[in-house]
Design goal:
By secondary structure, the protein is an alpha/beta fold. The chain is built from 7 helices and 26 strands. The chain folds into 4 domains: 6-20 and 173-317, 3-Layer(aba) Sandwich (Molybdenum Cofactor Biosythetic Enzyme, Chain A), CATH 3.40.980; 22-45 and 138-171, Molybdopterin biosynthesis moea protein, domain 2, CATH 3.90.105; 50-133, Molybdopterin biosynthesis moea protein, domain 3 (Molybdopterin biosynthesis moeA protein, domain 3), CATH 2.170.190; 328-400, MoeA, C-terminal, domain IV (Beta-clip, Beta Barrel), CATH 2.40.340.10. Helix 4 (226-238) packs across helix 5 (258-264).
Length: 403
């Protein structure tokens, strides 16, 4: 069977990935959720002209020169407007956020005045509109300020609150179930017996999914039997998972039973084995509405494949407007030999030069079992199939990894 190109594999995984249904959540629960609809302001901000400084609201024509002496007729604080109109020769004490009284068209800041009983004199002439925030200077009722498909940041939540939304329409979080397989796996904190290893893949996979806005379900570790593996697949389906991630058992050995188990449970396989390194034995299929991504067991392969394929799928199901990773340009930090028929994703460190250029240096050991190198890497350096030998300093493409 020919190896599937990476781009074709991603297209197959994303095919028909419609956003999750809409639900309403309170503002405090909407952080990093994806907006299901455009959001238009329900009010104008500020609703009236307001003072940007502490000082005095005046008519600019009355305070155009330093000989002005104005009578103070009242006070305006935030939330307590002044009911009278400011007339000729008059001023109103005003504080930041106070509504500009009728008749006033300028604010003289407190530092540019001197008090004399119920009068003030000025040390700097007023200018019309100075220190005034006009009504609607931030936004006006009906302005669309937050777009459908955007992921809500902390600043977006503040804006939504100011737009007068106590709750927001967002997409339901995709549910990602993670099932590991392997008789050799034991939990962190255990004392491995000969031939056993500590299970690590699921912790990275679940964290990666949660960081992208998914809810996760830990299905634990299944033994290397068809019965145990199919039981895990069944539990994923019964839990309502939108995505099932399996890790391990994806290769061609006698104990690699995931593909056989998936097919036994009725999963329609779209592909198995792709033209990339690390991660060749990855597979994908569907069981009803549940999408299945079978990841290799080697921890680096598992993570790289999840980053390249699971993350865009979660984004698509979340309704995000941008689902694809953005590649950046960098300069190669060391010489590289020619590549074979597989697309390479080399773990690399990143350094920023004084001139702003990024230097991407692949780590020396690219073995797919080396978690230390993966943890130290800050990017994946992408090399296309059959790339020629490349010299240090050449332009290359990278995908930065999550911090």
């Amino acid at each position: 069977m020919a190896l599937m190109p990476v781009a074709d594999a991603l297209a197959a995984i994303l095919a028909g990935a419609e956003p999750m249904p809409e639900e309403m959540v309170a503002l405090d629960a909407a952080y990093h959720r994806t907006l299901a609809r455009d959001l238009a302001a329900k009010r104008t901000q500020p609703p009236q002209a307001m003072s940007a400084m502490d000082g005095y609201a005046v008519r600019a024509a009355d305070a155009a020169d330093l000989s002005a002496r104005l009578k103070v007729i009242g006070e305006v604080a935030a939330g307590r407007p002044f009911e009278r109109k400011v007339g000729a020769g008059e001023a109103v004490r005003i504080f930041t956020g106070g509504v500009i009284p009728d008749g006033a068209d300028a604010v003289i800041i407190q530092e540019d005045t001197a008090t004399d009983g119920d009068h003030i004199t000025i040390t700097e002439a007023a200018a019309k509109g100075r220190h005034i925030r006009p009504a609607g200077v931030d936004f006006r009722e009906g302005d669309v300020l937050l777009a459908k498909g955007s992921r809500l940041s902390d600043r977006a939540l503040s804006l939504a609150a100011s737009m007068n939304y106590p709750e927001l329409p967002v997409r339901r979080r995709p549910k990602v179930a993670v099932l590991a397989t392997g008789d050799e796996l034991v939990m962190p904190g255990s004392e491995p017996s000969p031939g056993q290893i500590i299970y690590s893949n699921g912790y990275a996979l679940r964290a990666l999914a949660r960081a992208e806005g998914a809810d996760t379900i830990d299905l634990g570790v299944a033994a290397d039997t068809v019965a145990a593996t199919t039981s895990g697949i069944r539990r994923a389906s019964e839990s309502g998972a939108d995505i099932l991630i399996t890790t391990g058992g994806a290769s061609v050995g006698d104990h690699d039973l995931v593909k056989q188990s998936l097919e036994a449970e009725g999963v329609r396989m779209a592909f198995w084995r792709i033209a990339m390194r690390p991660g060749k034995p990855m597979m994908h299929g569907r069981l009803g509405a549940m999408r299945v991504i079978g990841l290799p067991g080697n921890p680096v392969s598992s993570y790289v494949c999840a980053y390249l394929f699971l993350v865009p799928l979660i984004r698509a199901l979340s309704g995000q407007s941008d689902v694809h990773h953005v590649r950046k340009s960098a300069l190669l930090g060391r010489d590289l030999g020619p590549n074979d028929q597989r697309e390479d994703y080399l773990r690399a460190t990143i350094e920023k030069r004084d001139d702003g250029h990024l230097i991407a240096t692949p780590v020396d050991k690219q073995d797919s079992s080396l978690l230390g190198n993966l943890a130290a890497a800050r990017a994946l350096l992408v090399r296309p199939p059959f790339a020629k030998a490349t010299a240090r300093g050449s332009v290359c493409e990278i995908l930065t990894l999550p911090e």
